[in-house]
Amino acid sequence: MIVQNEPTTSSLKSLVLKLGGFHAEMSFVGSIGYLMSGSGLMNIFETVYASTAVSHMLSGKAIARAVRGHFLLDTALTALILSNIYGIPVPKIEVNSEENAEGNLTQTYDTSKVQIHDTCYTEEMSHATDLLDLFLKGDVCLADVNQSNSLDTIKDKIQQFRHSRSKYKTANLWFQYMDMICILRDFIKAERTGNWTLHLESLKAMLPYFTASGHNLYAKSAWIYLNQMECLKDKMRK
């Protein structure tokens, strides 16, 4: 409003204000926590974090912990989906509550003990595993990984799996959660890499969730901001 109310001769008129990325991220994380209330998300997080910390995570205040927790859970959900698609067994730990009450609650699990048959690995999974190894070694770049046909095949199978479970309300709830985490990941990527197009796209994707969770101030300001940015190119030409 300060810039808008300045006279046309003011030097402030040439300023272009950008919506604060950090606070937009906090608000969106708070929206995720609100929309997923009662889903069991809090109970899942409490297996890793203290209950007090979880309440701050879901409100968007403990943003660093919240982002790590959401990304961790999203990875776990994706692993479960791939396990179902390709028949890869998921490691399971039998917990004795009496032993835990007396001993240390921290446990480790040796994943090398998991017996995975060769039949579990199709051609695209084997190629994706090889790509991951090469990427971690620095032999291939991210652009090469994204252009892989194997990853496209895996993505298509995940979409087919989601479509086959779309009639189940609980499944749809967690699929929506994964979509929200994908938006959050894109927004963080855009902020860190300076990807202007991805910044606008991810912020636009946040709007329905801002509105649904009652974050009306951010829904309004983000909508106005996006409209201004869409007109920015024509405005700068003039």
Structure commentary:
The protein is mainly α and 238 residues long. It is 66% helix and 0% strand. α10 (196-212) runs antiparallel to α11.
Condensed summary:
The chain is mainly α and 238 residues long.
Structure characteristics:
mainly alpha; globular; single chain; about 240 residues; about 65% helix
Which percent band covers the strand fraction? under 5%
Low-confidence stretches: 99-103, 111-120
How many angstroms does the end-to-end distance come to? Answer: 21 Å
Q: Radius of gyration, Cα only, in angstroms?
A: 22 Å
> Helical amount among residues, as a percent range?
55-70%
Main pleated-sheet profile: none
Order of helices and strands: HHHHHHHHHHHH
Overall average pLDDT? 84
- Shape type: globular
Instruction: Tell me the number of helical segments per DSSP (H or I, 4 or more residues long).
Output: 12
**Quantity of strands, as a count:** 0
Secondary structure layout:
Blueprint: H1 21-35, H2 41-45, H3 51-59, H4 63-86, H5 97-102, H6 123-137, H7 142-146, H8 149-164, H9 169-193, H10 196-212, H11 216-230, H12 232-237
